[in-house]
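Bug report

Summary: structure tokens for NADH-ubiquinone oxidoreductase chain 3 differ between web form and batch submission.
Environment: batch mode, default settings.
Steps: 1) Submit the sequence below via batch. 2) Compare with the web form result.

Sequence submitted:
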Amino acid sequence: MGDAWLQFRICYYMFALVFVVFDVETVFLYPWAMSFDILGVSVFIEALIFVLILIVGSIYAWRKGALEWS
């Protein structure tokens, strides 16, 4: 039968970690979108800053090679 121990490359874990981080962070945008008309412009600016931080983080991960399979 053999061992149940399988060794995976680190790139699979890094890709999964980056996916989970950005997936969880985008879930925080839903409450802002649902109550946008009540909260006003200041919350829109905060959400815009939040999205810009997400974009900067994804560009950083892309340039570091965390999103590449090779």
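Above is the batch result. After comparison, the two runs are identical; trailing whitespace caused the diff. The mean pLDDT is 81. The radius of gyration is 18 Å.
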